[in-house]
Amino acid sequence: MKRAIFSFALAAVVGFAGSAASAQTLKTVQQRGVLNCGANGTLAGFGLPDAQGNWTGFDVDYCRAIAAAIFNDPTKVKFTPLTAKDRFTAVQSGEVDVLMRNTTWTASRDTTNGLNFTGINYYDGQGFMVRKGLKVNSALELSDAAVCVQQGTTTELNLADFFRANNMKLKTVTFATADEAVKAYDAGRCDAYTSDASALYGERLRTVNPDDHVVLPDVISKEPLGPAVRHGDDQWFDIVRWVHFVLLNAEELGITKANVDAQLKSDNPEIRRLLGSEGKYGEGFGLTNDFAVRIIKHMGNYGEVFERNLGSGSRLKISRGLNGLWTKGGLQYGPPVR
Amino acid sequence: MSGARDDAPPKVSPFYDARVRAVVFQVLLCALIGYLAYSAITNAAENLARARIASGFGFWDSTAGFDISQTLIPYTTQSTYGRAFWVGLLNTLLVAALGIVVATLLGFSIGILQLSKNALVSRIASGYVEAVRNIPLLLQLLFWYNAVLKALPNLRESIAIPGGALLNNRGLFLPKPIFGAGLDAILVGLALGVVGAIAIRFWARRRQALTGRQFPVFWTSALLIVSLPLLLAAIVGFPVTFDYPEMGRFNIRGGVEILPEFAALLFGLSTYTAAFIAEAVRAGIQSVPHGQTEAAYSLGLRPGPTLRLVVVPQAMRVIVPPLTNQYLNLTKNSSLAVAIGYPDLVQIFTGTVLNQTGQAVEVVAITMAVYLTISLVTSGLMNLYNRRISLVER
């Protein structure tokens, strides 16, 4: 099983690999010629390989953006599908360079789990999906319900908290993967399936009759999703963090995949600094000064990445909501390049 | 002894002395293994500290915060990780113990049926063995789990089983007996029944040894063990009430719940292991020379007693060692529970607890130690049994 392999890999790596400094991730990736990215693998919109084995999704595009920044080639990524419960071990052990798997940023994961979250690329919250036939209008009516949930997630914990806080009786049925949990829910094992709201839209489409199911309006938790890297490599942390900020700043400044070449000649000093026409900000990351151009040319800006995978350009049709730019009433805010 | 001097080996330099060399090499090997283990452990600790990953066993008393679907001991979301560990361990032991019992009964029956003179029966038994043991267990578990879920009706259309039980795709719900005052009388009756059965067995053996007359021990014992508690219960007025399962808003409330995950896992594990046990039993029986059977027949024993008293006891010597293996396999295979949502030790502990604490090294080490202990205890018991039934040379 994958879990065992990762666990043993961890034991082997921490046990036998001498003090191979983990502070060399960028160099390691460059020498390897490919970025190892821990992705979801079963979640439409975030990370899912299609029939030809091409990975698509919001998180997947973030990995491609990192690869574009380093290699100027977004295809130089090796995706490793991870289940929720295996994902941290995979980062700890060095199996993947970056965890880009709709992962909620929490205190314990940021500290004792040995991870560093580089930012929040998607503001999410936990919701419930139920059968329409149950005539449930709110999550507060779910007392006594059997709920299918994926193991090793904040969802699993929030679920227990929510039921406890509202004095409701809970019957949890826990599965190792979201796939199994959704299947069991669809087969009638549970009354409700719970996950991040963004995931619920994708999972709903995977049930036999999506029209029989409805996502309840309640959002019971904060789920700030973001990329995570290992402790102990500040340079790598900065790169992963700023790939997100580059995408945000590009959208804010109106730089798109289509017009990035033209924008190189822009007079706007903010655009000039972001695209490396002015200053040497890329070198500070150990990258080239045009790293932002590489990212935008291949992947577009944050808005383009969002719409392509989750928004109007996708089957999910999720609105920007909290993930809108700060200038448009959302929470996404990129620090300035200076 | 005076002659010893002549027998003494010629004096050689310690460098060429075979015994000295053997000792030196063994000491070196032990030192090397010890050094490797030591450096692996210190290195792991050092690297974990550098990556600032938590280590140690402090997590044991922290609040777990997650829910578990089947708990044999009281457990809430506010219980500790340590408590969750025990819940998982008990769930593993439950399914392993029941699985071993069912697999043994099923395996022995099929093994004997494989040797049946009736061609149809033996073919069916062999076909079962070949089909079941050649399909990966994980697939079988997924098949049974989905078969259970799909075949059973949903909650609203639960099958009502006479006696107050309900069956649907959420599980089997049985009435839960609640004992009132007078429970002691029933327990006393049960104890008397068991003691009586043992006494009758001794008495019947002695009588058979002295007079050769047989006595139906099994049926008498069964009758005693069942009827005595019933009789006493009737006298104290059946102090048992039942908590019947009933339909709630979503789920069934009350009663005893048998999860479909548990049922599928138990069924899958037992049928799979039974196929291997059947082969061991067949091999064991065939290893007993046919002359033994013929001798028994010529003494006037009928086929049943021949099998029970002559063939099987001799076959057991061949059966027990592979049987032990199958028991160990069943226990270890129970960790596949993770695939179908049964909360066993691996699912709870190396699943959720590992994920939440991030302490892979400690959690995996504890789990490995637990499986090792269970396996060593099982094989220790089986070795004791094997010694008891092994051939005693007189």
List strands and helices in order, with pairings:
The complex is a heterodimer of chains A (338) and B (394).
Chain A: H1 2-16, H2 25-32, E1 35-39, E2 48-49, E3 55-56, H3 58-71, E4 77-81, H4 87-92, E5 98-104, H5 107-110, E6 115-117, E7 122-124, E8 126-131, E9 146-150, H6 154-165, E10 171-175, H7 178-186, E11 192-196, H8 197-204, E12 213-215, E13 223-230, H9 234-252, H10 260-263, H11 269-275, H12 291-299, H13 302-309
Parallel strand pairs in A: 1-4, 1-5, 9-10, 9-11
Antiparallel strand pairs in A: 2-3, 5-13, 6-13, 7-13, 8-11, 8-12
Helix pairs in contact in A: 3-9, 3-12
Chain B: H1 4-7, H2 18-50, H3 81-114, H4 119-133, H5 137-151, E1 159-161, E2 165-168, E3 171-174, E4 176-179, H6 183-211, H7 217-235, E5 240-243, E6 246-247, E7 252-253, E8 256-258, H8 260-286, H9 290-298, H10 303-333, H11 345-357, H12 360-389
Antiparallel strand pairs in B: 1-2, 2-3, 3-8, 4-5, 6-7
Can I get a quick summary?
Chain A is an alpha/beta fold. Chain A is 36% helix and 17% strand.
Structure, explained:
The complex is a heterodimer of chains A (338) and B (394). Chain A is an alpha/beta fold and 338 residues long. Chain A folds into 2 domains: 2-13 and 25-123 and 224-327, D-Maltodextrin-Binding Protein, domain 2 (3-Layer(aba) Sandwich); 126-221, D-Maltodextrin-Binding Protein, domain 2 (3-Layer(aba) Sandwich), CATH 3.40.190.10. Chain A is 36% helix and 17% strand. Chain A has helices at residues 2-16, 25-32, 58-71, 87-92, 107-110, 154-165, 178-186, 197-204, 234-252, 260-263, 269-275, 291-299, 302-309; strands at 35-39, 48-49, 55-56, 77-81, 98-104, 115-117, 122-124, 126-131, 146-150, 171-175, 192-196, 213-215, 223-230. In chain A, helix 6 links the parallel strand 9 and strand 10 (171-175). The N and C termini of chain A lie far apart (47 Å). Chain B has 394 residues and is an alpha+beta fold. Among the domains of chain B are: 4-50; 81-147 and 260-389, MetI-like (MetI-like fold), CATH 1.10.3720.10. Chain B has 12 helices and 8 strands. In chain B, the strands form 3 sheets. Chain B has a 4-stranded antiparallel sheet with strand order 1-2-3-8. Chain B has a two-stranded antiparallel ribbon with strand order 4-5. A two-stranded antiparallel sheet of chain B has the order 6-7. In chain B, helix 3 runs antiparallel to helix 4 (119-133), helix 4 packs across helix 8 (260-286) and helix 8 (260-286) packs across helix 10. The interface between A and B is large, with 63 and 51 residues.
